């Protein structure tokens, strides 16, 4: 531990600069600064610091160079920055996760959002790493305990699996993600909160996740008021940190909330660079952005651990066919749909079992467990097919034995799906069998 700390300290000292090259701000806009005077020293991807009036300090990333000027993407708001302000060339963009980040709330650049100093790790990591080669990766590991009956049974989450959580606004997505962050079996949790309001971030960290949840988590946040570049980087910073812990052999649970906000940030950046939007408003490159991120999660290779990922997607009116929802569904290993109708009648988590799929099945469950799930799903589906008739009083009891049984089972199964009591998978399956035996 002490050696690691000394190495990290030495590394930080090595990175310290004693002299700085200085440039000048020539043009200011909310999304971009044009800087002169650093043409021969700055490279693409380097970091600069703009010193505005009244002690204002703004970091920015060198995005492009042309005609002797640098195009700098600011990491914060450019309000207060003027033409003629000084620009220090800080050097390479260093992102070096560290064990001490566990329990912290950080911005996408690895700086503190909780007002305490942050130690940088010994090793820099690329913020956009390539995933392990597909052929060298393991398959899914064992089914994880999740503390939720529905995920322990109908929609299992296996080690290294990546699933999407598809939800409209206000149907309990954040509460469920925080619950999973606290309860899913993992060595640690890395969370990316992208484009939330500041109030939602505080609520998530202080109340939903709480002290116990935060103890084993690293939370990255870029709120809605942050520039698109920071919101986009938030997902990649979280993934890079998850990879750092994965490479130590640990099992990481990664939560990205939400991929929709990542896609919107990517769109804003791409359109400002002149990309052409498609019919849905997103540039075609958004598909690659999402797919590449998703591909970095999953089972590890060799001695590395695994990254189990849950990525949320905002769907308007349960429309699963939008570009982002459709892309993510294609690249992930399962999707869970939260249903507004279910949330409105007060059953949480508002998971619609019939519209959700886990691709770790059938392999991660035994034959008898698969048979129990198939029987329960059949009953739910029979009830759903006849629900309109049943609710409008058009169905006459005794007409169809299977529908009669589905009507008896439905409230019991619905109640079961809503249970998040921290029971084990074995207990949950026993309970499901008991429910099926009652009717
Ligand atoms: N497990 C639960 N038990 C009881 N009520 C819940 C539960 N989960 C969510 N709710 C109710 O749903 C509301 C919305 O929950 P939450 O903020 O988690 O939804 P969201 O989908 O993340 O919302 P937004 O889209 O606004 O971020 C909560 O304020 C609460 O009233």
UniProtKB/TrEMBL annotation:
Q: What SMART domains does the annotation carry? A: AAA
Q: Where is the AAA+ ATPase domain?
A: 159-343
Quick one: where is this thing mainly located? cytoplasm
Keywords per UniProt: ATP-binding, Cytoplasm, Nucleotide-binding, Protein transport, Translocase, Transport
| Natural source organism | Meridianimarinicoccus marinus
Statement: the UniProt record of this protein carries the keyword Transport: yes
Recorded catalytic reaction(s): these are: ATP + H2O + cellular proteinSide 1 = ADP + phosphate + cellular proteinSide 2
Q: What name appears for this protein in its UniProt entry?
A: FliI/YscN family ATPase
The answer to whether the entry has keyword Translocase is yes
Q: Where does this protein reside within or beyond the cell?
A: Cytoplasm
Q: Name one Pfam family in it.
A: T3SS_ATPase_C
């Amino acid at each position: 531990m002490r050696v690691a700390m000394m190495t990290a300290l030495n590394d930080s000292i090595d990175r310290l600069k004693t002299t700085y090259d200085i440039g000048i701000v020539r043009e200011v806009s909310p999304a971009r600064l044009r800087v002169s005077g650093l043409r021969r020293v700055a490279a693409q991807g380097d970091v600069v610091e703009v010193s505005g009036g009244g002690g204002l300090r703004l970091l920015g990333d060198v995005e492009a160079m042309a005609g002797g000027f640098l195009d700098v993407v600011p990491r914060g708001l450019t309000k207060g920055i003027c033409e003629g302000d000084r620009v220090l060339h800080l050097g390479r963009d260093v992102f070096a996760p560290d064990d001490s980040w566990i329990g912290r709330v950080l911005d996408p650049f690895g700086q503190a959002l909780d007002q305490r100093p942050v130690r940088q790790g010994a090793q820099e990591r690329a913020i956009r790493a390539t995933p392990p080669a597909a052929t060298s990766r393991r398959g899914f590991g064992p089914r994880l305990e999740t503390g939720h009956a529905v995920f322990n049974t109908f929609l299992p989450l296996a080690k290294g699996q990546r699933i999407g959580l598809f939800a409209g606004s206000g149907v309990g997505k954040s509460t469920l993600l925080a619950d999973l962050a606290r309860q899913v079996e993992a060595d640690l949790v890395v969370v990316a909160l992208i484009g939330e309001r500041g109030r939602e971030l505080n609520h998530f960290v202080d109340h939903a996740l709480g002290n116990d949840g935060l103890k084993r988590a690293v939370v990255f946040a870029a709120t809605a008021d942050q520039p698109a570049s920071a919101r986009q980087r938030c997902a990649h910073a979280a993934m890079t940190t998850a990879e750092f812990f994965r490479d130590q052999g640990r099992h990481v649970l990664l939560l990205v909330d939400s991929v929709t906000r990542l896609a919107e940030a990517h769109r804003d950046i791409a359109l400002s660079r002149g990309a052409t939007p498609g019919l849905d408003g997103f540039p075609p490159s958004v598909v690659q952005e999402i797919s590449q991120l998703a591909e970095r999660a999953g089972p590890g290779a060799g001695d590395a651990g695994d990254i189990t990922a849950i990525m949320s997607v905002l769907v308007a009116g349960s429309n699963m066919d939008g570009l982002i929802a459709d892309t993510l569904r294609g690249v992930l290993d399962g999707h869970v749909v939260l249903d507004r109708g279910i949330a409105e009648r007060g059953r949480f988590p508002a998971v619609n079992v019939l519209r959700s799929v886990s691709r770790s099945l059938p392999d991660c469950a035994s034959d008898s467990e698969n048979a129990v799930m198939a029987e329960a799903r059949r009953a739910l589906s029979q009830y759903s097919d006849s629900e309109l008739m049943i609710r409008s009083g058009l169905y006459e009891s005794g007409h169809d034995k299977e529908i009669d049984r589905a009507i008896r089972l439905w409230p019991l199964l619905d109640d079961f799906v809503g249970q998040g009591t921290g029971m084990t998978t074995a207990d949950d399956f026993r309970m499901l069998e008991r429910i099926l035996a009652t009717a």
